[in-house]
User: Fold these one by one.
Assistant:
Number 1:
Amino acid sequence: MLSANEIRKVVAERTEHQKGTGKKVVDVREELDRLEDRGEVIVHRIRPANRPVPLTTLFGWTKQIPTDRLWHHKSCGQCGNIPGYPSSLLWLMNETGRTYLNEPHQTSCTAWNYHGTATSNPVALAAVAARNFHRAYETDHFPLIHCGTSFGDYKEMRKLLVENATVRTKVRDVLRKMGRDLVLPEEIVHYSEWVHAMAPEIVARKKHSLTGVVATVHEPCHYYKMVPEDAVYDDRVYAGQRPAVPSGILMELGATVADYSTWYDCCGFGFRHILSEREFSRSFANLRKIRPMVEEAHADVAITSDTGCVTTLDKSQWIGKTHGLPYMLPVLSDVQFAALALGAHPYKIAQVHWHSASAEALLTKMGIDWTSAKAEFREYLRSLKNGAAPELLHPAHGEIENYFAINKGQVLPEEVPAASRVPGATAPIVGGRSE
Amino acid sequence: MSIVAHLPRRVLSLTEEEAANPPAMELTGRRKATGPEHELAETIFAEFRQDPRHHEFVLGCLNCGECTTGCPAARFYDFSPREMLQIAATGDATTLWDAMQEKIWACCQCYTCNMRCRFGNDIAGIISVMRELSVVHGLESTRKTLAPFGRSLTLLMTVGTQVSSDMIQPDFFRDWGPFATGSDKVWDVSSDVMRKAIPSDVLQTTRSSWEVSVQTSLELFRIYEETGVLDMLRGLDPDLTEMLIDIIEERREEFQDARGRFAKEIAAMRGPVASFTG
Ligand code: SF4
Ligand code: SF4
Ligand code: SF4
């Protein structure tokens, strides 16, 4: 069911069929170069300063994963209600000595809204994507996409902007009205690919043994079902028959990754449903995902790598007890799980208290003393309530950044000759982020 | 005795009243579109077929049912991606109109159907095209379906993020349990303090997913204005649209004030930050 071999066949058949229309290109990255030569787009390239690591995609193509000088493209659902997700990722970057920008000058991809309410259109989606791409480019930091849906959407939008000259022209016109230009990144990179590329460095810092911890993986639909040819596969993970992320890092950390029959199913998020028709989301999440994970695989934890998936699988369980489904299986993102394994504070960093299904039994199994961590966190909250300054993973932004997307030692397009429009400037690096 | 003798006579002939007011549904279950509704259905159908994406997304159908077998929505709704694709491929104005009233909103946009379709149809994509048209034409059924989205649309249009922690209110998310919605009760501090305990300043807000700079939100709004999204929304909810314009006007004023306050710093900068005037 949806093994790599089957997907390759379907995608290959589709590509052949679409090539027949004379409109489609197979690997957009090749076309990007041609468009750049014609001065139609600026390609944001991965440079040595990004310390790239090559991974392999479904079609055996090499995908360079930048591991340094990254521009965090946050996810609205993660930041809004599972904030331990982005904070664990930032923490892992600090631990492994990677630099980044985490700015207020980013919008979401707006694709959650599009897939939920359709109150947008492809030109708007492409322009939103390109505005974020340009901001990342001008700061000379490579975009790292936190959300599975943004990742899928941005791949679709990059493809659309490459293949459709009309959309390209419209989007370029809109961007130029705000002093920006059409920039397309050489690779669209999901943060879980960064995790996979960084696995050796992450594992080297492991503090807790995960022997005996059984994890079931929910593979986010929008990671591998949208523009599937670009998803990362690895022969060491399910013999290359399923996406390498997020299973790879769990295996490397020593957890047991257990299989279950409905692994390929969606989580039930539905974009619209999770807000206005949750009867569906919770039925689907409990019956098609959580129950098989617990009853078939005897999981201690469900791990996934997308916003909607963590939200749906986690938040849908509390009500399950009214239907005789009293599982309360903890649901974490791969980065929360990895950060915990490396000794991150379960409340201050992994922020597990935002989750509906308690992670405490899991923490015990991982050998983490959560009772003292919890007491410490309670004390910390009290101090914040009394006006103490919060502990931060990166320096706070100045007031000017509440208003302006200020210069940060970046490349300014007008200074670069069109023929060699590649980021060249290197900004001084300060602490956990470069600015 | 033949079974026909048991049938009520009125099945065989319509009463005068029924003849004057024909039922909206035919016995086959298909609704008959008439009058202005029919004209709108024809317009939508023509626009649907002329959308360049129709040609790209709808490639034909083997009728194999692979799409529906893996479809999460098909498990819980009277809905099937195969039916949607076939309506897109060979349906007429009425079948399209009917599907647009309710069925298109069952789809989860998970792309499982696309992944399984040997013909390479973009079924999730063509369903989105149908949805867009239902928004553009402000169908009554669409207005009802999207009525609960005022709050998230406001956030999305003004700051470009879709959720905020202050949206997760116990009244609306009771089913998520006390940990997701009642941090103040569980931890005995306000939600502001809970957000302060997130170790990144940009995340310490309750009103958006993260702090979004004014320039960023104005650039986003410019995109919505230029790409027809604002007009789309106006068709769906004119009051909400006016409110959004008011919010943005205030932000523009705020931006101009800030340009005055930070004039010296901005003068030393180049690129969009220097040229964007709101
Ligand atoms: S499983 Fe759900 S939330 Fe996750 S990517 Fe699929 S549809 Fe989105
Ligand atoms: S994208 Fe929609 S139609 Fe396709 S499988 Fe998912 S829910 Fe079903
Ligand atoms: S999988 Fe494709 S070909 Fe098969 S029924 Fe569905 S749309 Fe038709």
Note: Chain A has 18 helices and 14 strands.
Number 2:
Amino acid sequence: MIDRIEQLRSEAEGEIGAAATSEELEQLRVRFLGRKAELPQLLRGVAQLDPAERGKVGAAANAARQALEALIEERTAQLAAAELSAGLVHDAVDVTLPGAPAQPLGSLHVLTSTRRELEDIFLGLGFTVMEGPEIETVHYNFDALNHSPTHPARARTDTFYVQRSGEGPEVVLRTHTSPMQVRAMEAHPPPLYVVIPGRVYRPDSDATHTPQFHQIEGLAVDEDITLADLKGTLLSFARAVFGETRDVRLRPHFFPFTEPSVEVDVSCFHCSGKGFMADGSRCPLCKGEGWLEVLGAGEVDPNVFAFVPTTAANAPGYDPEKVQGFAWGLGVERIAMLKHGVPDLRMYFENDLRLLGQF
Amino acid sequence: MRVPLPWLYEYCDPGLDVHAIEERLTMTGTKVEAILRQGVEHTEGFVVGRVISAEQHPDADRLKVCEVDVGARDGAHATIVCGAPNVAGGQTVAVATPGAVLPNGIELDRRKLRGIVSEGMILAEDELDLVAGAERAPGIIVLDELMLDAELAPGAPLAEVLPIATDVLELEITPNRPDCLGVYGVARELHAATGAPLSEPPWVADPGAEGALGAAEVIVECPDLCPRFTARVFEDVAIGPSPLWLRARLAAAGQRSISNVVDITNYAMLLTGQPLHAFDLDRVAGAKLVVRRAGAGERVQTLDGQTRTLDDEMVVIDDDDGPTSIAGVMGGARSEVGSDTTRVLMEVATWSGPNIHRTSWALGLRSEASSRFEKQLQPEQCMHAQAVAARLMVELCGATLLPGTIDVGGAPAEREVIRLRQARVGALLGLPIERERQAEILRALDFTARDAADGLDVGVPPLRRSDVTREVDLIEEIARIEGLEQLPATLPARRGAAGRLSHAQRVRRAAEDALVGRGLHEIVGWSFTEPSLLDRLQVPAGHPLREVVAIENPMSDGQSIMRPTLIGSLLDAARHNVARNGPDVAIFESGTVYRAGGEEGLAREHHGLGALLHGHLGARTWGGQEGAEAGFFAAKALLESLLGHLGVRFTVEREEWPFLHPGRSAAVHADAQLLGLLGELHPLVSEQWDLDRAAVFAIDLGKVAAAAPEVRAFVPFGSFPPLRQDLAVTLPDAVPAAQLTATVREAGGPELEDVRIFDLYTGEQVGEGRRSLALTLTFRAIERTLTDEDVAPRRKRIVDALAAIGGELRG
Ligand SMILES: [Zn+2]
């Protein structure tokens, strides 16, 4: 009896060891350990044996069964691991194929992303963002901004006029975002810190001019805002946009609605303000100047404050003897052009996806 | 304005190189736009030569073979073949030797001319760029005819004899500074900017005198438009070409040479800023000039041969035969100086700047004179120009200046005085400046400055009368000369400042970002469009979209109205991209649209958001998946994402728009407010833009912002699982899906969390005129787990409610 058990055990061990698949193993488990298999039968028959035999045979059969069960389990695990490995190998993909289905994001227009970047810089400096009408009266666009009645900007070659039906104020497509200076001051008392982004219009069309373009006006008015404060504010702006090592310089200029008036240059980021490149050639961006003109600015002209009526909305109003401040107007297209190297302004409004997708 | 540097140095020479001058002028407000070179770039190889002999070329009639002494050390003469008719032995001439580079960029080489090697070139004026225009003297320059002061030794550098390499500053003069439209005015700026001494004004030495002048008569009938009119008379005038130095100087300043008298008027203008006009006095009928307002409709022939129709705000100058010129704008041909002129009346007048501006724009007639007068010149400048011109008329034309000056109007005697509070300077600039320094700067700019209690009493120079009228204008003068480089970079106190975006601005950004997240590209279209856009969009007469803002002076008809909708820009961009980049186009625009009829004469503007889909949303990939086809529901899905993201509750109902497919066209509302439109383009409209099926939406972002909650309150959701049940129902076609879901929601009660349509079927099985919709109902309670038994009564109410709108349960 014991011999038979050993024989079964070694036969089973041999076959289990040789089994190549989990199915085969399952068949062997049924054959050697299933209800009708010989070894379990033997175990069940142990009760009928001599008591002297019973212990030995039972122990041997039990040991054989346990050994075979353990062996099957071990072998099952081995086979499962092997089969999993084989399956994983089989499942391998070409990881260099593109993702699918593709989920490309779209893009903001470079003028929008630039405008937002600039807005965010000025938000961080404490300015509120305001907007105003693009179709504007001559009063706000010129008169209240201290333009003399003969100022050339009023000419029909320099400003789009809107057709009027009957009487009413003279209306233009605003030529700058500056009309909102007076509107903002009419609506709010000092101190006032606002930036005004928006679309403006001038009849001009070539690689560096389009009849519509975008500006961001800045206006800060309080009791003691100086030209040095303008310089500091624009220095913060220039460094945020063009890099931490940038510098700004103010050049005297003339605008009807600021006094003193300045043009503001930022040191060229392409040549670090040197005007020439490492190979000694002239910097193509600043044309050797070392500076890039970015905007016009100045201290708000007292005449502009005088144009702001005092009302309940803005009391105590803007007395030129009591308040002072600065204003600037910068071109979004110009900043985007400098930053990204877009060669022709007209491309901004062509809306070719090959341009749009780049930013 | 162009200022030749040697001319500037006559009045102020700081001894700096041209780039240092550029920097000082630019940083004090006179921007140097460019530094130009009149003449040659390098002066090497240009020498004085003496023609030893000039013999006929054996093989060419028009050429001469010259032996020229060019100062060679070995005494050898250069052989130069020359085609000029006036070349002759004994002349001292200008020579370019081999290696010299001419202004046109050509480098001279020895070269054979009809068999004889020419070792250089004898130069004419135009070859050196000495003069502008066609008025050059014919032939080569004969130096000994020029009466130059310089030594004319052969081999001497030509640059020491002739201005063959002149640096010229191209300046941007701001419109408030007509005083800088003259070389002397710029010299004063350079003086203030560098501290270098300034010479006396060139008009101090005046050969003329005040007093009566009988040779001519001037009457000014409109002194409001002509504050000053001066005239002097010259006799025995010999008209001829100007000397080379004058022609060269004018050329460097960008002026053509005409004749000595005309050149003198231009020279005096460039030096003083003040235009002059020379009349041939013998052609001034009655020797009398009358300045008067024109009659309305009066016609005048101007120098350019055109007949101009005037109005009664324009000023003409008459002689006894009628108008001779339009004052300050353009002279007449009748009394022009010509080659036979012997008596010259030199007119120098001051005109009203605004009036000249108006006349010149109204007539479309711009001249050098009008562009100066319109900036408002000052009466004092008249005599500056008369003095400079008188000296040159006597020197260069051999003229006799008659004693006396006609002077109608004169000049104000007193300077305006402005109090400058010392403390205001520092308070405005953020940089305190000592009172002494303030006075020093102002005096350098020709202001007077006297100590006053709290600062200075400053007298304004006559030429700055228009520009400097207030304390702040003086502060600007001080700031720009002291140097804005000195300003510290500080930040404002920012009392009460709090940078933030408004709700509407945040909604706009969120909306744009949502569409970008769904794969759309933002475009920026033109605000301008063409009137025919509305026809192409099939917009009928009387439709609100036809209430457009029209531009009076558009750049073209294609840009003559302001867009009343974003659809046109989107279609234009779609056509551009479909043609170039393939059919899959998903774009949006966030921008202003305009309708006529706003308050205070303005337009009604709103910020719109429009999207257009064409082709597929997302390209086909290797896995075989393809994005949704651009159609009504693709656009609607986008709009649902967008408005859902913003928290806007909205409805979509059928409504026709002229440019949309009549069966696939809808209005979008939030509460009672119309937000915008949604639909597929009308096939005829798509065709106009060469597009296939395309879907769009366009909404008013201002109204969206108003409907979007600024803050969203938390909605509790409990922790119990939902119960889902499906329901299939057939309904008459006429019942819209929105009515179905609304009915189910209403009947489903508060525990009905969601209703979702997951299948739509039409066909034989449901019968003609009906369709089957399958719904998933999601029930959930806050405080317990729901069972089928719990929701059975609700389900029954839903089924009953559906029956009431013609619904029958399936299966
Ligand atoms: Zn550079």
Note: The radius of gyration of chain A is 42 Å.
Number 3:
Amino acid sequence: MTDIIIPNLGNEISEAEITEWLVGAGEEVEEGDVVLLISTTKTALEIEAPVSGKISQINFSDGDLVQVGDVVGRIE
Amino acid sequence: MPKNIPIDPIKTFSKSVLKSSGIPIHQYQKSIQEELKIYGKENLIELLRHMYIVREFETMLNSFKTKGSYKNIEYIYNGPAHLSIGQEAAAVGSAFALKTEDKIFGSHRSHGEMIAKGLSAINNLSRNKLNSIMDTHHDGKLISYIHKNFNNKEFNDAEMFLLTGVLAEIFMRELGFNKGMGGSMHAFFTPFGAFPNNAIVGGSSGIAVGAALHAHLKQNKSICVANLGDGSTGCGLVWEAMNFAAMGQYKNLWPKPFNNNPPMLFCFMNNFYAMGGQTLGETMSWDRLSRIASGVNPEQLHAETVNGSDPLSVADAVIRKRNILLEGTGPALLDIECYRFSGHSTTDTNAYRSREEIKDWKSFDPIELYSQKLLEADIIDKKNLDNIIEKVQNQIEILTSKVVDRELTPSIDITKKPTIIGDFTFNKQVNRISKTANDLLMDINQVNQIKNMKKKSRYGKTIDGSLLSGMRAITLRDSLAEAIIYHLSNDKSLIAYGEECRDWGGAFGVYRGFADIIPMNRLFNAPISEAAIVSTAIGYAISGGRAIIELMYSDFIGRAGDEIFNQLAKWQAMSAGELKLPIVLRASIGSKYGAQHSQDWSSLLTHIPGLSIVYPATPYDAKGLLASSLKSNDPTIFFESQRLYEKVEIFNDKGVPEEYYTIPIGKAVKRKKGRDITILTIGASLYPVLDASEELINHKIDAEIIDARSLVPFDYDMLISSVNLTGRLLIVSEAVERGSFANTIATNISRFAFNNLKAPAIVIGAPNWIAPGADMEKTYSPQTDDILDSVFRDFFPEKRVNKKGLRKDWNFLELAKKGL
Ligand SMILES: Cc1ncc(C[n+]2csc(CCOP(=O)(O)OP(=O)(O)O)c2C)c(N)n1
């Protein structure tokens, strides 16, 4: 089981908004696939699947605010 | 959107040889008969006459410097005279090839170039145009002086206007082109295309490129020339400027019709010596100056080495380069080899070169050679030649006799108007925003980043008073963006650039989304050339444009030191207000990246006279002050703090207005009323001070907080009236304490509010050492506890509160004694 985590977003930035999940729970993903779009006050970012597997959990919905380090989803 | 210049690894790693083509050296071969056909007799003779004028003019200066007299005129001239005796063919040949609207920028040794450019312009301009230039310059004062003092029939009034304007400038008289505020090394007269000369070696290179960028964006079919010395090939700015003019993006990425290079000619007046250092063979690595071009671009800047002892060879080269530049395949470089017979300055003892060498070059005296050529070809006869020489001598003698006369041609009387130089420093003009931008790529309101901002709350708190996230409310970053995009999307004369400004949106994201709106020719990534970024903005602005430039971290100010300290700050005053520099320089005070990325250098720049300096701490102020800075015609340094980009508006309960508005530069703002102590904050220190003030209330100390917002000018009125009531002043700034602007304010308040002070004014700054890395940063910038400790220790010792800050036991005097 591997967490999808909000990475460090740069100097003085601590939070981000979930712009859009590109995958849903239960979907299969390959390592490196873009699974999630987030935006910070400064920029927009693509989050990739850290491993291949099935999305087993999605913890935040589009539009939610998340903090750096938050586990936003899981891959099994 | 990525730019789409793919870097292909296969191609990258494939084997090949990088080729460069040859650089022509002294290839000019035209005969005088051919030249006669091209220019006609009259022009060829004019060239000679112009060389004589330049020579005589400088001979006169030399004579004053070395003997205190010229002919029968006695005068002690105290200023500098970097003469170009021996280099006249370079100056005159080049000017002859240029059009009036072409701009030249010179060096410390540019009297000759400026005079030659003026003489050429006078020959090319219609009488009507000439009259209107002369009648409007300084309200017609100079031209009426000319008409009063010189016989119109005997002397061409426009030439007398030019020569008197230059000489009076050199002699620091009010009739000088810049009222004597520039002097010998900074003289210029823009209507004739003679733009500022520059006493900083290489200083003109970037300024000229900025002017060329302006000509390019205006598509006005003129070129810009930087006349530089060979010594300047050792200057970083010169290299930066060559690259800036040659950048690949013009051709590769800029939209039509701007998809070619700015019309920029680097003209090196190569006299083989700096002062005493010999460029060829000693201080420089090149074997031929023109070789430097082969390092710049595949076209090798179309470089050529030409014979600077022959005006026709120089003119031929400049005409050819000019054509190339107007086709858009520039920039170009000319290495004009010539020799100065005069010393570097008039105190030069020529210790660095031999008599033999000087003698050898005497047989290449351009005036001798060219006179001979014209005589031999029967273009002029001896009698006519003598006649020309005599007339030139008379011309220089008579105008000199008038200019040296202090009654007739006085200097500005500084004793009568002691602050007049101050009056030249800022023009205080506010520009009306022109609605000229017809080049937008997309409707602003369709751009995602802008749409996202529109969804946010304008105020930073919810109805129940809790703080909103920067994702939900307008941040300081957003408010900067709103001010800038308003100006960029209205005013087509405004350009924005800096490192990583376009696709990246600026290192701190202020420009995000702008690349979808503003075409590349007005918003672009600059090379990592801080000096050229500032320098080109100056050239762009003095040509009539407006610029907002970004230096990313304020720590990089050092890389643009001269351009900020000596150029941006000084040209308005050095031109007696003739030049305007509507430039906003954004510099972001960093955090978390350690010693070279976290310094508040606002005090460094407040020390330099001539710059407006603002440093807002809230979103509302950031937007309004940036709008004012962009409207201002004075050069403005706009400090931002990376600690504040995420801040939402908590002071103005209507939030940050969506509409455009301005906040006057020079007005502070009261953040909290109080009666026991005034705490002045500069920039980001507002926030720890706010926290401290809440704690102070528990100790029955009611602090008044004033946020400076503007440093130059600073709102002394608000501060003095506050201190008059509280009797105590603490100033908190993140700049290092030693030499900080906060100390200047403290001193002034000690003076102007002395009677009401109950204690000396105290400054808390950063300690006088490096900013440490992220985890240790709180030991550096003043923290809430440091502020509280100071209030209790320095103002209310009777409160007997335990001190908690890192500095609580510091012996400030001992530290100061140690240089810390
Ligand atoms: C930045 C800077 N460094 C040094 C000087 C002092 N200085 C004035 S002229 C000069 C030599 C310049 O040589 P070059 O560029 O070849 O021009 P030339 O004097 O030969 O015309 C020097 C070192 C200066 N004015 N500016």
Note: The pocket of thiamine diphosphate is lined by residues B 108-109, 199-201, 229-232, 271, 273-275, 344 (CB under 6 Å).
Number 4:
Amino acid sequence: MTGPFATQPGPVPVLVLGDVLLVTLQGDLHDTAAERLQQDITQRIASSPAPVGGVVIDISGVEIVDSFLGRILAEIAASARLLATRTVLAGMRPSVAITLVELGLTMPGLDTALDVERALSLLGHPSPAAPTTHPEEGA
Amino acid sequence: MHAPFVSATRLSIGSDADLAWVRQQVRQAAAALGFGLVQQTKLVTAVSELARNTLVHGGGGHMEMTPLAEGNRVGLRLSFVDRGPGIRDLELAMTDGYTTGGGLGKGLSGSKRLVAEFAIDSRPGEGTTVTIADWVSGVPSPRAGAS
Ligand SMILES: Nc1ncnc2c1ncn2[C@@H]1O[C@H](COP(=O)(O)OP(=O)(O)OP(=O)(O)O)[C@@H](O)[C@H]1O
Ligand SMILES: [Mg+2]
């Protein structure tokens, strides 16, 4: 038997992909970690030397979204928007989507994509798998 | 006294690490009883809402988890117990969107929609107990006040 702290995730990693911030949420996110993430993302957008072109939050590894996490996600998107930055929520599990609707949390105004790749292309960002440049020489 | 079967499990709710622990224990129990993925997700989400209310509004307390067997159906009963300030107006508290904190006011009304059975017992000054029960798929329960 493991104790409660076995589920304590470390700080949420924020990856920089070109001008996009990619945040990957995994497993069971504690309330304090979610609040820290909100501050962290907003700080990064505001203090980044180069403008941040968008934020992608990958929740494909998240088993449940309750009203607390739902509110944090909506607030991250709202504050990013005030800082001229678009947020896309990527990879929500079908079971989570069904539950959120029944809970009454449809999060209007939050852009979504089925996966990270589609979220990146929604932000006008080439997918990381594809080559980033296609110089057409002698055209 | 040692009962031959595990009857109820009691988990304390005093921190946000406890919330994560409670969610995990309910998910494991629900999966072991044969709840499907969507039903597990709904149940664990309701648990997360109610356990957070116990922590935030009730000042902490505990959850009691009891496996149920009735005829040929199995289920899970979960009670969230605190000795906090209680709820003065239950009807108002159950209203979608009503909150006394900075929340969305979806916790009580939403979790009621997510499970088969839902009951609140609360006395001002004495505390609050919210009890929910859910059964492994079987007969789809008629949705209370389906709109
Ligand atoms: N255990 C409790 N003890 C005392 N009051 C409670 C308890 N649970 C709920 N309440 C009261 O009922 C109101 C509605 O609860 P509900 O969970 O629906 O919304 P919330 O907790 O305010 O916001 P949300 O859950 O959407 O973040 C709360 O604001 C609080 O006043
Ligand atoms: Mg609540």
Note: Chain A is about 35% helix and 20% strand.
